[in-house]
Amino acid sequence: MQYVFLAAVVGLLGALLIGITAAIRSAPLPRWGRVILVLFILVPIPFLLFGFAASFEPGEYHWVWRIACAILIIGCVATVIRLCWPRRSNPSERQ
Hints:
By secondary structure, the protein is mostly helical. Helices cover 74% and strands 0% of the residues.
């Protein structure tokens, strides 16, 4: 049962990160939009860090949780970095 929950969490957060990244790449967002998205993406990071730390308790098959939490933490951090420093477009590309 716990793996169904893990798959749902990974699917939802992964799809969210991919969707945000795709939206960012197509057109730069205004500053207020980036701030709201950064705050929204920073929310699950403490829970993911706790899940990653809790996966080191004794037992079997905790490596799945470690990998999933690590991938989602890296994805959240990469998306926040991408939102904080958007790509600058050249004036010649706008024409």
